[in-house]
């Protein structure tokens, strides 16, 4: 992942100039090779990854710099879908384009380009700077104030090394994460650091900071203009190919995670016809039970004609490795990373692959788990016409229930919108299960749940607010988009020098298409993900195309790993910081970790989550002992 740091301040402030000079000196003395750009009141530094070609793009006259990867949008590019690829990648910004970007205050980048990027723009005539994070950018952008100086960065280790400010733990954020509620917002688990949202632009002036929203998926959800099934399939196919071509264009050899499911198979098929014809090697990680999908992976790899590497998941994994997780601004919750992340990186280097590709976000993008809210959307548009009646029958078939029960659920969903216009993880969990069952699946204490409830909407992401009212069938898409672009989803063990992770589905053009598709179109003829199945019907072998609702996963492997590490997990959590602070229910934890208890998949997932949070707290505790700190970063 691209590594950068930006510092902006008031060039007439002695304090800002002193701190800025200190940062520059420390960067110059660093053993690492930082590439820098300096103007009075503005400083940027970055380290280029040998495994990536994402060199920054500098605007004319040094008026700005773009970190990460940038591509022309399908609307702005003259390249056809078949020829798109390296032609869409941006490595130079002309004087005229620089002027357009500056005059639009960066807004033109969000409409004419896409990618995994962060932009810094200078306006010396008004002593202002703008920092913009791309609308769909996994590249993080964290913000910390040091006096009146503003520091933006991708990796918190660099802030630690600079020793600019003492940091303190945001226990409210930790509590929200512990109870399994909504917690992915601009607040991080460190009081002094704020995360810039995707599509958000921060305007830094001499006295304050102002946050502007340049891109909000709710504006596309309110449109939902793609209501024709075959039009939707054609646009999805073309846009997915365009994004895969562009994202892979700088890589000659790719390692592709191939589970054998629909999403990873679509990704492999897209890469197999990319214009630059990269060499492809697929990797399948398998485990017992439903976690063994080698049969389907072999079929897909054979159809494409690429090499398939098969490796078992490590059932003897030592969970003490979680204690080695990276420094991050919030605990990272990556279920299978302790097992497969380092092995994928090692394999990529062994075979000479310059990037690792996955099908992340495919489930959310293509409607794997469409809820009854999709019928509410359809009814609003079509009332009791044929489109709604057909959608209701299809939903009943997919959910394996009667039509009358389906209609009753749709009515219940419709009547609840006024009282509950927001999407909420807690409410969705309690709606899917009962409130009592939902609580039994989480190891949080009652006091932690009560405290979280008292925070109201503080930890509810802006994109989830009023979204249930706008598009009741969009929860999984929004939730997936928020998670995959947040710090919580980042690599807990990887390093910036590792081969980059590419997720072709996590691309702004494709996500904007998905946001416009009426949710009920994803259910058709008794199958989910109908748009994707039809769009790629000629690319996928019938056994994969016709796979039903059943989906494999590492659930049995995860249970075995927890059982094999029960002694460590008991000691680590029962004697840990979360229990000491009363955030975990000690009695429930002891019962769940008893060798006599049969652990559910949900409980196993929560054990992994609590291990990550505990490890994060133990890592940060020595650096966060109480003393004077800078105030938490807040915006006007």
Please tell me about this protein's structure:
This protein is of the alpha+beta class and 636 residues long. It has 27 helices and 17 strands. A 6-stranded antiparallel β-sheet has the order 2-3-1-9-8-10, covered by helices on one side. Strand 6 (113-123) and strand 7 (128-133) form a beta hairpin. Helix 8 runs parallel beside helix 9 (294-304).
The percentage helix is 40-55%
User: Number of helix segments?
Assistant: 27
Q: Strand fraction band?
A: 5-15%
The main pleated sheet reads as: 6 strands, antiparallel
Terminal Cα separation, in Å? 30 Å
Given the C-alpha coordinates, what overall shape results?
Answer: globular
Strand element count: 17
Query: How are the strands ordered across the major sheet?
Result: 2-3-1-9-8-10
The radius of gyration over CA amounts to 24 Å
List unreliable stretches of 5+ residues: 627-631
Overall pLDDT score? 89
Judged by helices, strands and strand pairing, the structural class is alpha+beta
